[in-house]
Amino acid sequence: MKATAKAHTNIALIKYWGKRNEDIILPTNSSLSLTLDGFYTTTTVAFHDDLSRDVFTLNDQIIEGESYNRVTKFLDLIRNQSEKKHLFAEVHSINTVPTAAGFASSASGFAALAAASTRAIGFNVNDEELSRLTRQGSGSACRSIYGGFVEWEMGSREDGLDSHAIQIASEKHWDVRVAAVVLSSTEKKVSSRAGMKRTVETSPFYTGWLDSIPYDMKEIKAAIREKDFEKTGSIAEANCLKMHATTLGANPPFTYWHDTTMRVMQTVQEMRENGIPAYFTIDAGPNVKVLYLPENEDKVKKVLEDIPGVSDVTLSKPGPGVTYL
Amino acid sequence: MKATAKAHTNIALIKYWGKRNEDIILPTNSSLSLTLDGFYTTTTVAFHDDLSRDVFTLNDQIIEGESYNRVTKFLDLIRNQSEKKHLFAEVHSINTVPTAAGFASSASGFAALAAASTRAIGFNVNDEELSRLTRQGSGSACRSIYGGFVEWEMGSREDGLDSHAIQIASEKHWDVRVAAVVLSSTEKKVSSRAGMKRTVETSPFYTGWLDSIPYDMKEIKAAIREKDFEKTGSIAEANCLKMHATTLGANPPFTYWHDTTMRVMQTVQEMRENGIPAYFTIDAGPNVKVLYLPENEDKVKKVLEDIPGVSDVTLSKPGPGVTYL
C-alpha cells in the first residue's frame, strides 16, 4: 500500500491553451513538450486504514487549502476505481524543481502523484493509462509520464479515453538544452487557468490559434525526427508568440509579458543574428525558456545572465519519464 | 496656379491595418482617429510652365528618391484629371511634426499636398472629394482632411468612390489630450507597409481582427458622442493590442514593440490603478501615444517622462482639419 515515484517537469514547444471540458480536463488542441532532466518531483504515497483524512506534505511542510484539495480530489479519482474507496493516504512530495526556475510544480507533481498512488493502491496501469489519469489532475502533467519529446493527443471523445500523451522521441534521441530564465519581478495578474478560460471565451483570435495547430504539430514532429534545430526552434517560438497573441485579443485584454520578458526575447533574436542558434518559448507567465544546443551552452548562459532584470538562469537537458523508486 | 495649405497629423484609435487594393489604397477595415493640434505640415504648391520636372523641398532641403517619387506620383493623379497634364510643380513643405514626436509625416504631409495641389491647379473639390484623393497618396492621410474625431469609411466599391473620411465630432466637441511618448531606441525592422502586407497574407489572426472592427467602431463612436473617456480609452487600447497581436501570428512573426514599449504600457496601466485615467495606443513602431484628460496633464507628463528609456514626451490637443493660407 506504499509506493514512491519520480517525475520530471516538461516545457511545451506547442502550447496547451484551452480546455473543451474543464471537469475531466480535455484540451481544445494537441500540444507537444520536452521533458526536462533538471527539474523533478519525488512523491511517496501510502494508503492507511487508520487515517481520518489525507495528509499532504511538500518539502516537509504540511499543505492545506487549494493545493491540498487538488491532491485529495485526485486521490478520490484513484480510490473510487478501487475496492479501497475508504482508505486515506499520506502523500509526501519533495519538489526539486527550484522555485527560482519558474516552473509550475503541477506537471511533475501530478505525474509523480499519479504514478505513486496507482502503484500504492495496486493498479497495474500502462503508461497510456497513467497519462490519462494524470491528465485529470493537471493537463500538462500527462506529458510528464514520458521522457524526451512528448505529444499530448487531444482526442475527440467526450469521455477523454483518447486524450493522453505519447512519446515522439526519447530523451536519448536528441540533446536539445533548455535555459530557464527567471526574472526579478515575476508578478502575474491572471492565473494560467483563468487566462486560458478568458481567452477561449472572448478572444477573436482563438479560432485562428486552433486552426494553426495541426500544421505546427506536423512540422515540429518532422523537425524533431530530423533533428533540425532551426526548424524546431522557429516553430516553437512562433507557436509561443501565437499563444500570447490570443491573450491580447481577450476581453478585457491581458498579457503575461513584462518589459524584461520583451528584453529577453529581443536578446535571443540578437543571439541568432550573431550566429548562435537559440529560440525562446514562454508559458503563462513572464519568465522565458530558451532552447539551445550543447555546444553553445556557455555563451548562451552568459548572454542571458547579463540581461538587466534577469535574476536566475538554470540549465537542463532532456529528461526521462516517470520512474519508480 | 499657386496655393498653400496646412494639415495636421492624426492618431488612430481604431487602427487602419491592411489594404484590399494596394494601388489606389483601399483598406480592409474602417478606422477612426483624432486629429492633433500640435503636429502639422504646411505645403505650398506652384505649377509652372517652365519646369522640366517637379521639385520637392521639405524643411528647405531638396528631396529625391522614394519620398520624391511618392510626391510626383500623387501630383500625376491631380494633373491627369486636369487640362494641365504637362505642367510640373514646385512643392515646398514645412513639417512641424517634430521628428522627436515619432509621428510619420505622411498623414499631415499628403493631406496638405492634396489640398494645396488641387487648389493650385484650380479644382473645386469638397472635403469628401479631397479626402478620397488624399487617400491615394497615403491611406491614413485621408483622415487628416477633417479636424477632431474622424472615421475613414472603408467602403465596398472597387473604384474606391465610397472610401473616404467623414467627421464624427469636431475638435471643439471634446478636449481629449494625447502625449506622444518617444523612446530612446526607435529601431523598426519591418516597415508599416511591409508589416501590414505580411500580416494580411499570413496571420491566422487576421480574420479575427477584421471581425472585431464593426463592434469596436460602433462602441467607440457612441463613447465619443457621450464623452465617456473610460470607454473611449479602453476600446482604443484594446484595439491597438489586437492590431499588434496580429503581427505575432504572421509568418515569420514580428513585433513593433521594444522592452521600453512594454514598460510604458505597464506604466499607463499602473496610472489607472492609481486613479489617473490614461490609455495607450501604438502605431506600427515602438513609440507609444497616451490619451488623457486635461486635468491630469501635469501628472501624466511627469510619470511618462520618468520612465527609463523614454527620450521625449510631447503633448497635443485635438486639432482642426485642413486650412488654406
β-sheet strand percentage of chain A = 25-35%
**How many independent structural domains of chain A?**
2
CATH level 3 topology of the largest domain in chain A: Ribosomal Protein S5, domain 2
What string, H for helix and E for strand, traces the elements of chain A in order? EEEEEEHEHHEEEHHHHEEHEE
Overall mean pLDDT of chain A: 95
C-alpha end-to-end distance of chain A = 14 Å
CATH top level label of the largest domain in chain A: Alpha Beta
Helix content of chain A: 25-40%
CATH architecture of the largest domain in chain A: 2-Layer Sandwich
Major interchain interface with per-chain residue totals: A-B, 31 and 31 residues
SS element count, helices of chain A? 8
- Major beta sheet of chain A, specifics? 8 strands, mixed
- The quaternary organization reads as homodimer
Q: Radius of gyration of chain A over alpha carbons?
A: 19 Å
Spans of chain A of at least 5 consecutive residues whose pLDDT stays below 50 are: none
- Structural class per helix/strand content of chain A? alpha+beta
- Structural shape of chain A: globular
Number of strands of chain A: 14
